[in-house]
Design a protein that fits this description.
heterodimer; A: alpha/beta; 6-stranded mixed beta sheet; 6 strands; 23% strand; globular; B: alpha+beta; 6-stranded antiparallel beta sheet; membrane (chain B); cytoplasmic vesicle (chain B); transport (chain B)
Chain lengths: 184, 882
């Protein structure tokens, strides 16, 4: 880092960089959430299933986020682990209307928590209980029960209901994440 | 220390040192972990990526795990916005795409880049994307690629068109659907896009001749802006024309000719080249193209001169007369500063020039022979070879020139070309033999190529003894025994033995020389020497001609199989019989197998040794037939007819070809049948044979149980040959019999019920030639004397329908099915008489030799003498010509 960058950092002019990994089952709304978080003019209209991953950037008040938006399809899930090492936070997106596959999501979460790169570190995990606008959607509390979130003791976590289409609930989650990082 | 040494070396070279020299693969991969750090340092990462690419391009092999690790580390660089870094990442993705696993992970990132706003990314992202895409993913990105083809940005459009070409091989059906976009791209203003679009369009349509012709007509009418695209179109057109019977009338031909007046030189050259390379064009029509090339010869640009002279050089090989008009311009190029142009000009002149100019040209070319590269020297050697065949009288000039070239420095290919040329000259021109052998002898005195030395020694062994003064070669050959490596020594020993066997006067001296080799350090040399000494001591002509001059005649694969079977058989009651081994089917002139020759060559030149051991067609047949239980008792396969006879027209419902396999007492007819009707399945297919001579007895048929549409199937018929050895010829009438089951062409489901049907085939003749296997005797006269005249037969025929000696020789060889020896199949055109020497083995292992004296006077008169070890065989062979 150059001298000028350091100076800017001290003066608080330059925002802190933050690497976030966004994972979750397919069709849970990861790309939609990230898309909604981006500035209005760079948002895209059509969201297609992600193959592999894409890198997106957005800003909150005090942080620059770099998000690795991973593909959630079954055949690509084992590739997530390549990005655990660099992740400073994890966003785990749940489809709260899909009761049936909640167990699959739990399975994936367990694998994540047991992974050597994650287990030892105090990585904050933000859960979005997405698709809250659906009629049969589970509430965040029900989700956390189904996912067994109470068992996560060594990491800070937070769950909030969200709607990626309208953007409802997203800022709530991002604010929590910002706070966590400022604390650490 | 290493650094010091390197610096010193750099100073000597006076060149800049390469910063990437001596890179270690594992160290570079270690450095690649930097990619995982945040924030990313673009300059450092670009440097590391460069190192990875360098290592890969040096040919270092990356393992799958290392590559995958490096690849995934690299994917993290997508978070950087640095343009240079991103483009470097694309390059690295392309390199690693085939090595690493799960490369598909970058698909979405690349798709985002190729559709994004940053123009610098788009073209490269497309190229990288097509490298990592497989056919399942292609559907997903198809619409992006189609859009990119018609993109305004030329580089994006070109990139997607080229990518489409790459994708076409595995995914033809997908790319086929992009024709409309490609068509739109052809009308682009950009020269490159137009060229690439036309290429893609052609490759999509190239299997459909009608579509190609439409393509050509469409774009010859609307003139293309890009000269590259026009060149492409010329190539497409010339390929199309090559399949056309009548060239000169075609409008496509007019297009090619009009291109000769194009404003771009590139197009003019391409058109001229296409015209002179057209297969079906008469030499008169070449004139405009040749005159264009002639203009180029005096162009100030060396590339054009080179292109023109190179093309003319090729034309001169086939049509020297058309090039003679350019001779004056070519003369001027002899002194061109560019040696490549000068060489080509001289060799072209050598082909087109007349006998008187040869001396001058040879002098000219030898003045700068030392300045040109080996490749061009080979061109010169080839030109000399064809020149020698054209002007046999000039051979002493050529020989001297070739021998001085032999003395010069040069690589293996170059020396081999010279030796090949000298050998061809010796074989074609008997006057040049003494001089040629002399030069070759001198060459092997100092020859580092084992392959060439053994080859020349073999040639000396064959030709030397028959020269006027054989003793002068012996010193050269014996020097090899003293000075060379084991392979050459062994060849020299064999060569010496041939002199001993052939010339009685030299035999005693040879025995002295050979007995000195008995204590050689190498097993092979010792074995050969012992073998030859013992045979020569016997002083028996028959032995020495059988074991030294003529050598083994069996097929190596067959011998190996027979020996293996003999060793595996535990009884060993009878000794191994060499007669049971099938004979070599194609005894090549220079591949006559000497005892142990392959064994000694294997370590030194494995590629050459493997050639004669490769299974011949007959060996393949023998294996197939041996697998059929009905034929297991027939003994070894004696001969298979060289090419299948067609028993049907090629366009009929059922296509049947026949191959004759002759055994000791039987003939097996192999029928290869193909059913060309897609609504029928044939079952129980067999060919019933009716012999004209009742002595031939049909033993059994091996039917083919099922013959579905378009899958070749084989059925066999086994015929017992008559006891009486003199009746060998017969004609068979054949009928194909089968049960037809109709079926649905689309599903291939046959009906339950079938009905019997038959199909009449053409007749098959069994001729004398079918009973004779070709065998090459290197020393015919020795074999002739050896076999004796007990069973000699003689007769004289008048062959009135023959119009030349050459034709007669060809016919006789065909009727008898025997191998011409001593190159007696080549007829000297200015003589009226000729002696033809033929050798073969008759069914049952009887050696047959034929000497035919032919005289030409309006018709051909032939006196034929047959010698064999069986009177009946002689009679049968004699009757074959009548």
């Amino acid at each position: 880092m150059g001298l000028f960058d350091k100076l800017a950092g001290w003066l608080g002019l330059k925002k802190k960089e933050m690497n976030v990994l966004c994972i979750g089952l397919d069709n849970s709304g990861k790309t939609s959430i990230i898309n909604k978080l981006k500035p209005d003019k760079s948002q895209t209209q059509d969201i297609v299933p992600t193959v592999g991953f894409t890198v997106e950037k957005f800003m909150s008040q005090s942080l620059n986020f770099t998000v690795f938006d991973m593909s959630g399809q079954g055949r690509y899930r084992n590739l997530w682990e390549h990005y655990y090492k660099t992740a400073q936070a994890v966003i785990f997106v749940l489809d709260s209307s899909d009761r049936l596959r909640m167990v699959v999501a739990k399975e994936e979460l367990d694998i994540l928590l047991q992974h050597s790169e994650i287990a030892a570190r105090r990585v904050p995990i933000l859960f979005f209980a997405n698709k809250m606008d659906c009629k049969e959607a589970l509430s965040p509390v029900q989700c956390s029960q189904k996912m067994g979130l109470d068992a996560i003791l060594n990491k800070p976590w937070h769950i909030c209901a969200s709607n990626a289409l309208s953007g409802e609930g997203l800022t709530d989650g991002v604010d929590w994440l910002t706070d966590q990082i400022r604390l650490s | 220390m290493q650094y010091l040494r390197r610096d010193k070396k750099d100073e000597e070279d006076g060149s800049q040192s390469n910063p990437f020299q001596n890179l270690d693969k594992s160290a570079v991969l270690q450095e690649a972990r930097t990619f995982n750090e945040t924030p990313i340092n673009p300059r450092k990462c670009i440097h590391i990526l460069t190192k990875i690419l360098y290592v890969l391009n040096q040919g270092q092999h990356l393992g799958t795990t290392e590559a995958t690790e490096a690849f995934f580390a690299m994917t993290k660089l997508f978070q950087s916005k640095d343009v240079m870094l991103r483009r470097m990442v694309y390059l690295a993705i392309k390199e690693l795409a085939n090595i690493a696993e799960d490369v598909i992970i970058v698909t979405s990132s690349l798709t985002k880049d190729m559709t994004g706003k940053e123009e610098m990314y788009r073209a490269s992202a497309i190229r990288a994307l097509c490298k990592i895409t497989d056919n399942t993913m292609l559907q997903g990105i198809e619409r992006y690629l189609k859009q990119a083809i018609v993109d305004k940005n030329a580089s994006v459009s070109s990139a997607s068109l080229v990518s489409a070409l790459h994708l076409m091989k595995p995914n033809y059906d997908v790319v086929k659907r992009w024709v409309n976009e490609a068509q739109e791209a052809v009308s682009s203003d950009n020269t490159m896009v137009q060229y690439h679009a036309l290429g893609l369009l052609y490759h999509v349509k190239k299997n459909d001749r009608l579509a190609v012709s439409k393509l050509i007509f469409k774009y010859t009418k609307q003139s293309l802006r890009s000269p590259y695209a026009v060149c492409m179109l010329i190539r497409i057109a010339s390929k199309y024309l090559d399949e056309e019977p009548e060239v000169a009338d075609s409008p496509v031909y007019d297009f090619l000719e009009s291109c000769l007046r194009h404003k771009s030189e590139m197009v003019i050259y391409e058109a001229a080249r296409a015209l002179v390379n057209l297969k079906n064009l008469k030499s008169r029509d070449l004139c405009p193209a040749i005159s264009v090339l002639q203009l180029f010869l005096s162009s100030p640009r060396p590339t054009l001169r080179f292109a023109a002279v190179r093309t003319l050089n090729k034309v001169a090989m086939t049509q020297p007369m058309s090039v003679t008009t350019c001779n004056l311009d070519l003369e001027n190029l002899i002194t061109d500063v560019n040696r490549s142009i000068a060489t080509l000009a001289i060799t072209t002149l050598l082909k087109t020039g007349n006998e008187s100019s040869v001396d001058r040209l040879m002098k000219q070319i030898s003045s700068f022979m030392s300045e040109i590269s080996d490749e061009f020297k080979i061109v010169v050697v080839d030109a000399i070879r064809s020149l020698c065949l054209k002007f046999p009288r000039k051979h002493h000039v050529m020989m001297n020139f070739l021998s001085s070239m032999l003395r010069d420095e040069g690589g293996f290919d170059y020396k081999k070309a010279i030796v090949d040329t000298i050998i061809t000259i010796i074989e074609e021109n008997s006057e040049a033999k003494e001089a040629g052998l002399g030069h070759l002898c001198e060459f092997i005195e100092d020859c580092e190529h084992t392959v060439l030395a053994t080859r020349i020694l073999h040639l000396l062994g064959r030709e030397g003894p028959r020269s006027q003064n054989p003793s002068k070669y012996i010193r050269f050959i014996y020097n090899r025994v003293i000075l060379e490596n084991a392979a050459v020594r062994a060849a020299a020993v064999t060569s010496l033995a041939k002199f001993g066997a052939h010339c009685d006067s030299l035999c005693s001296s040879i025995l002295v020389l050979l007995s000195r080799c008995l204590l050689d350090t190498d097993d092979e040399v010792r074995d050969r020497a012992t073998f030859y000494v013992n045979i020569l001591k016997e002083k028996e002509k028959a032995l020495s001609s059988g074991y030294i001059l003529n050598g083994l005649q069996v097929s190596i694969v067959g011998l190996e199989r027979a020996l293996y079977a003999y060793v595996k058989d535990s009884t060993h009651t009878a000794p191994f019989d060499l007669k049971t081994v099938p004979l070599a089917t194609t005894p090549m002139k220079d591949q006559v197998v000497k005892p142990g020759k392959t064994a000694i060559e294997t370590p030194s030149a494995p590629t050459k040794a493997s050639a004669p051991v490769a299974a011949t067609r007959q060996d393949v047949y023998a294996e197939q037939l041996a697998a059929i239980p009905q034929f297991s008792k027939l003994g070894p396969l004696f001969r298979s007819s060289p090419k299948p006879a067609e028993l049907t027209e090629s366009e009929t419902e059922y296509v049947v070809n026949c191959v004759k396999h002759v055994f000791n007492d039987h003939i097996v007819f192999q029928f290869d049948c193909t059913n060309t009707l897609n609504d029928q399945i044939l079952e129980n297919v067999k060919v019933e044979m009716e012999p004209s001579d009742s002595d031939f007895e049909v033993v059994c048929y091996v039917p083919r149980p099922s013959l579905p549409y378009n899958t070749p199937g084989t059925t066999y018929a086994l015929i017992k040959l008559p006891q009486d050895a003199s009746s060998v010829t017969c004609t068979f009438t054949n009928t194909l019999k089968f049960v037809v089951k109709d079926c649905d062409p689309s599903s291939g489901e046959p009906d339950e019920e079938g009905y019997e049907d038959e199909y009449v085939l053409e007749d098959i003749d069994v001729l004398v030639a079918d009973h004779v296997q070709r065998v090459h005797k290197t020393n015919f006269l020795a074999s002739w004397d050896e076999i004796g005249d007990e069973c000699e037969m003689q007769d004289t025929y008048a062959l009135t329908q023959m119009t030349s000696l050459e034709e007669a020789v060809k016919q006789i060889i065909e009727y008898l099915g025997m191998q011409p020896c001593e190159r007696s199949d080549k007829v000297n055109t200015d003589k009226n008489s000729h002696a033809l020497l033929l050798a073969g083995v008759f069914r049952g292992g009887h050696d047959v030799l034929v000497r035919a004296r032919l005289a030409f006077d309006q018709g051909v008169t032939m006196n034929i003498t047959v010698r064999s070890d069986d009177a009946v065989v002689s009679e049968v062979v004699l009757s074959a010509v009548g």
